[in-house]
Design goal:
Layout (H helix, E strand, L loop, with lengths): L4 H14 L7 H8 L3 H12 L3 H18 L4 H7 L5 H12 L3 H7 L20 H8 L9 E2 L13 E4 L3 E6 L3 H12 L20 E3 L2 E7 L4 E2 L2 H6 L3 H18 L12 H15 L5 H15 L4 E4 L8 E4 L2 E5 L6 E4 L2 H14 L4 H22 L3 H23 L5 H16 L1 H4 L2
Length: 434
């Protein structure tokens, strides 16, 4: 079998991931691939966006901080991952993350680093120098660059960066999502909602192409991101109601948008022809439940109201200002589909970020679920068909998430969580009815 350049780099990434605690040299990697060291370095940078040594340091730091968050002593982790002293680890960490390890752990919740698969990667790895090059299109290359992370999941955004104090740089390998976000943000002008509105670049374009990369610079939404963990830990039913109400108000503002703005999301067909089969492969979904889903949801689906929806309505995309929910971000994935998808996705997202496989977890979540749907109904009014369809939309979302995550190595943990959630929610079907 003849390996192409990407395959050879992938082999190197796999080797590094398995040997992060040992000495790894660029020379041995280039020799194994059959290239000169300089040529191999160019290929590696092209595939990952980083020099070999910087990529290796980044992976070691990610694994080390995860182990530290799991209870390992900082010095032990630093030495195990190839740093001669804790001071060396500390300096490298500060350069990479912009803060000390202790400061990082106070505000973030590290997750186990996933295996990088170049064939599956949907995000773009860029050095800060590369980001500065992108910012030159707006004359902002001297601005400070920082991470964006989501408090609920602890995951760091891989395609968004904080620029200075008031701006966000969005990056993509394809222009469609960014252009969609730009059009929706313009359409929502005057809606009373804070949306990340894009700045025109020096050439006047809202979406800029730079080589193989597309980017957009947006104004940061004022306020603070909501945290599903805090909502879940407290008596958050009133807050959940306001969340549902916000989604309803957003849908009212989006209702008049042209349907050609987004592609159509055929939710029922996607589950019936793909996700349901993927879940059944795991052998945990009884045939009787699959059959009942197809019969009942199939009768309701065509009667459900459809419009442009957010599609990725996660609580961490909502901003709170002076106690009020005032802003929403991330319209890149917006689609035309059943509007019930957004409030149901919002509710299941809260559960997935706080899920433990116990009855108490579901009992704590159900009032939040009802609060979101009640708030949505108060603002946008649920039809009788929508009320009957709510449990099936919830099951659809869980089956799609389980199928999607199970096909991507880096999301194995999310696949397992969503499958267990699906089984739990099926047990509580009656309580999901509105």
């Amino acid at each position: 079998m003849v390996l192409d350049h990407l395959d050879r780099i992938q082999l190197a990434l796999d080797y590094m991931e398995q040997n992060l605690k040992t000495d790894i040299h660029v020379r041995e990697l280039s020799q194994a691939a059959g290239y000169s060291e300089s040529y191999y370095g160019d290929l590696f940078r092209e595939a990952t966006g980083l020099p070999v040594r910087q990529y290796l340091v980044r992976r070691r730091l990610a694994h080390a901080i995860w182990e530290i968050s799991s209870g390992k002593k900082m010095l032990d982790a630093a030495l195990e991952y190839g740093f001669d002293t804790y001071a060396g680890f500390y300096r490298a960490f500060c350069r990479e993350y912009g803060c000390s390890p202790s400061e990082y752990l106070k505000s973030r919740h590290p997750v186990r680093p996933y295996r990088i698969d170049l064939r599956q990667e949907e995000k773009i790895l860029l050095m800060k120098k590369g980001i500065q090059g992108l910012l030159a299109h707006w004359g902002m290359e001297q601005e400070k660059i920082g991470e964006i992370y989501y408090e609920g999941s602890g995951r760091v955004s891989e395609n968004e960066f904080r620029i200075g104090e008031d701006s966000i740089l969005k990056i993509s390998a394809m222009p469609d999502g960014l252009q969609r976000h730009a059009r929706i943000s313009q359409a929502l002008t005057g809606s009373g909602l804070h949306i990340p509105r894009p700045f025109p670049a020096k050439d006047g374009n809202l979406v800029v192409q730079d080589g193989d990369v597309f980017c957009m610079l947006c104004r940061k939404v004022p306020g603070t991101r909501l945290n599903s963990g805090k909502l879940f830990a407290q008596d958050g039913e009133a807050m959940a109601y306001r969340f549902g109400e916000l989604i309803g108000k957003l849908h009212l503002a989006l209702r008049g948008l042209d349907t050609d703005l987004c592609q159509e999301n055929h939710l029922y067909d996607s589950v019936r022809t793909w996700a349901l089969k993927e879940v059944q492969k795991k052998g945990h979904l009884p045939l009787s439940i699959a059959g009942e889903y197809e019969r009942s949801f199939g009768k309701l689906y065509e009667k459900l109201p459809k419009q442009v929806i957010h599609k990725n309505m996660n609580l961490s995309y909502v901003f709170l200002e002076e106690g009020r929910m005032t802003g929403i971000t991330d319209f890149e994935l917006s689609e035309y589909g059943v509007r019930l998808f957004d409030p149901c996705y919002a509710a299941t997202g809260i559960l997935s970020e706080n899920f433990t496989d116990g009855e108490e977890c579901i009992r704590k979540w159900l009032p939040l679920y009802r609060g979101i749907l009640s708030g949505y109904d108060g603002a946008a009014h649920l039809t009788e068909e929508e009320k009957k369809a709510v449990p099936y939309v919830v099951f659809s979302i869980q089956m799609i998430c389980t199928a999607y995550f199970s096909q991507r190595t880096k999301y194995e943990d999310l696949a397992e969580i969503n499958e267990r959630m699906l089984m739990r929610l099926l047990e509580h079907k009656k309580e999901l009815e509105v």
